[in-house]
Amino acid sequence: MTLGTVRHHVRIARPANEVWARVGDAAALHTWFPGITDCHVEGTSRTITLGTGMQMPEEIITHDHLLRRFQYRIATPIFQFHRGTIDVLDMGDGTSVVVYTTEADPRTMALAIGGGTAGALDELKRQLEPNEGAA
Amino acid sequence: MGRKILFITTDQQRYDTLGCNGGTVARTPVIDGLAAGGRRYERAHPQSVVCMPSRSTIITGQHPSTHGVWMNGVALPADAPSVAEVLREAGYRTALIGKPHFEPFLDPFARFAENRFAREGMPVPHRGFEHFEAATHGGQGFLHYARWLAANHPEAVGMFYPVLDMALEVNAMGGGQTGAPQAWDNAIPKEWYHTDWVADRTIAWLDSLDADDDWFCWMSFPDPHHPWDPPRSEIGRIDWRDVPLPAGYQEDGAAREAVLDGKPRHWRAWYDGRLVSNYEAPLNWVPAQMTADQVREVNALNAVECELIDEALGRVMAAIAARRWDDDVDVIFTTDHGEFQGDFGLLFKGPYHVDSLMRLPLIWRPAPSTAASPATITRPVGLVDLAPTFCTIAGLSAPEWMEGHSLPVDDGDADARGFERVLTEWDSALFGVDVHLRTITRDGWVCTAYLPGYSHDGTEGELYSLVDDPLQQVNRWDDPAVASLKSDLLADLWDHQPVQQRPLRRIESPV
């Protein structure tokens, strides 16, 4: 396995519960992830539609409201392995840090997906801090 | 009515692939003719030896440290300075036709505008280009050429070499007649190949213009960048068995390895297959296993691609003549960076600042109406100087954000205006491996300082005399006889080094 790992994070001036309300809504990913145009959830299955028009099936593997952790894997043959992890950390001062980790084999896909996740964090911050400006 | 500008770039083309530069394999009569009537630069260097940073330098007139595209996969912001926008605002009609690569190609989310235009259209000018038709090295993807091929000749989409393997790494699969990596028998008809498509679309755009329009057209061929998969019908132009081995390729393996061992350790590590530091070379290819015949075949296929470009340019020049524009058109031909084609037993590119990758073809044929004298310029110039040159041609002052200077018209002009040095930089960080080089070329020497990284502790470097050692085989970095010279070169390098934009822009994708 040639696992690639990419990790991005952003600090958001909003309480962790408020941030988790967005991040933990599995069916709302397309509202804050640029390049994902639609999102459909049935049980632990999620299908996202990319900006290219391509649909991609995913399996939700962790959805922990107490830990504020969401994990999923992309279930297409191109991936030998994929795991996306989004953690919302409470900084104890009314702000939070969102960490978005992508692990993938092929490792190249970790970079290509990871670039998208960084853009998603920027957009999440922009939406949740409307008066603070873009990241 | 002013001077019109046809700007031609190729991708990854060596200086010595042109007849006017001493090349003997490819026949390039059109470009040679432009050189004979214009200015031929013998020491033109890129400011980065990979596509995205180098192309960003061309359009901005800035070094990579300034424009911030520090490695492939880092996007140039859509609102970055652009010489095309300067020209457009001055009334020029503007187009980019062919390979752009200011934004990552591997873009599964279609986040980048240049990957969406073919499908969604381009509602407003982009980077100053009112017209934009994009192509890259094959028949797949999101760009205009791929969509055209799929719509008109779907059977040809799969004829190209698969640039990426199943693991999405740069493909190491061998082909051709020798099993050379990225050599390929491509059944596509010549008329459908991207070189002819770029010329066809350029001619179509030129035909759409009014006779008295001023225009700037960047015609950007994806070749002769690997894969080496020109149309099968054209391969017979050059029999690889007749192609001489490059001067920089030592047939004797021990001699080759001795040369590599005189260089910083990542050279030999790549050669042995122990370290691929960057995405621009196949992860699963071991250079040490390359045969002399594979070197010959790669050079032959590369030369075929260069000939096709030359002929395509000839068609565009004929179209310009048919519009009776030829007296008023400045033509500039260059490339974004060079290529190993067997030198040191290597192919492709990476953090290796030697002539293979840094010495570029650069031809400026001024509009004949200017009655400019032909010249050969030996002083160092850079691709960073192109943007201000376009401004000069258009009769405009170069904006302050451009760091280069309008290309010298001869060596006297170069001396008068201080063309003493050219800088090249490399930064990469990929899966835990980072490499950082800063290079100065001046006074017949090329000097590279290594900053601390995965393989280097910051004390390493390379120093070559371009006069005594034109193939850069003897690294004199630790030679006491040239210690003072090295010190002077390093001082000049750091004195003129642009301040690197921090924080570094994000890596969006491998390429």
In terms of topology, how is this protein built?
The complex is a heterodimer of chains A (135) and B (511).
Chain A: E1 4-12, H1 16-23, E2 36-42, E3 45-50, E4 55-64, E5 69-74, E6 81-90, E7 96-105, H2 107-128
Antiparallel strand pairs in A: 1-7, 2-3, 3-4, 4-5, 5-6, 6-7
Chain B: E1 4-11, H1 29-36, E2 39-45, H2 51-60, H3 64-67, H4 83-89, E3 93-98, H5 117-120, E4 131-134, H6 144-152, E5 174-175, E6 180-181, H7 194-207, E7 215-224, H8 232-235, H9 253-261, H10 266-271, H11 292-322, E8 329-335, E9 340-341, E10 347-348, H12 355-358, E11 360-365, E12 375-377, E13 381-382, H13 386-393, H14 411-416, E14 421-430, E15 433-442, E16 445-450, E17 461-465, H15 483-496
Parallel strand pairs in B: 1-7, 1-8, 2-12, 2-13, 3-4, 3-7
Antiparallel strand pairs in B: 2-11, 5-6, 8-11, 9-10, 14-15, 15-16, 16-17
Helix pairs in contact in B: 7-11
The overall strand count of chain B is 17
CATH topology of the domain at 4-25 and 59-128 in chain A: Alpha-D-Glucose-1,6-Bisphosphate, Chain A, domain 4
State the CATH topology of chain B. Alkaline Phosphatase, subunit A
Structural class of chain A: alpha+beta
Distance N to C terminus of chain B: 40 Å
Name the shape of chain B in a single word.
globular
Rg of chain A, nearest Å: 14 Å
Largest sheet of chain B, described in full? 9 strands, mixed
Radius of gyration of chain B: 21 Å
Quaternary state, please? Answer: heterodimer
End-to-end Cα distance of chain A = 35 Å
Which structural category do the helix and sheet elements of chain B fall into? alpha/beta
Please name the two chains that share the biggest interface, counting residues whose Cβ lies under 8 Å from a Cβ on the partner chain.
A-B, 23 and 22 residues
In the CATH hierarchy, what is the architecture of the domain at 4-25 and 59-128 in chain A at level 2? 2-Layer Sandwich
Instruction: State which percent range the strand residues of chain B make up.
Output: 15-25%
